[in-house]
Amino acid sequence: MKSKKKLPNFKNMTEHEEQEFWDKNSIIDYADEVKEIDLNYIDQRPLKKTTINLRIDESLKNQIKKIALKKGLPYQTLIYMWLKEHIDNEGKAA
User: Fold this and answer.
1) Within the chain, what is the greatest distance between any pair of CA atoms?
2) Which of 7, 13, 41, 42 could form a disulfide with 17 if both were Cys (CB 3.0 to 4.6 A apart)?
3) How far apart are CA 70 and CA 9, in angstroms?
4) Can you tell me the distance from the alpha carbon of 87 to that of 94, in angstroms, rounded to the nearest whole number?
5) Residue 17 structural domain
6) Domain count within the chain
7) Rounded to 5 degrees, what angle do the CA atoms 90, 93, 52 make?
8) pLDDT per residue as tens digits for the range 78-91
């Protein structure tokens, strides 16, 4: 069944006007106007990284470097991996 309604140009609307439109209308009435999208899409763009300065004891830095050397990684990468792993685990526990 073809819908005869056309979607308005949302670029010319405020967010409030768009919300009012969807409060009064159903997406079903505009089925022919919308495109199907893949909801399983994962953004593959690299994340923007930033530099931080972190003061640690020299002995701790040396221990990290030894572990990183055993793993064949730069010590900065190892620290990043540990931070990410810890944050991910905290998120799961919350």
Assistant:
1) 72
2) 13
3) 58
4) 11
5) 1-39
6) 2
7) 10
8) 999 999 999 999 88
> In this structure, what token pair is assigned to residue 41?
């899409």
Angle, to 10 degrees, between the axis of helix 75-93 and the axis of helix 58-71? 90
SS3 assignment for the chain = CCCCCCCCCHHHCCHHHHHHHHHHCCHHHHHHHCCCCCCCCCCCCCCCCCCCCCCCCHHHHHHHHHHHHHHCCCHHHHHHHHHHHHHHHHHHHC
Do the domain assignments include residue 71? yes
Q: Report the predicted TM-score, pTM, of the whole model to 2 decimal places.
A: 0.50
Q: Assess if residue 46 is contained within a domain.
A: no
35 and 3 belong to one structural domain: yes
pLDDT tens profile 23-77: 998 888 888 887 877 777 777 788 888 999 999 999 999 999 999 999 999 999 9
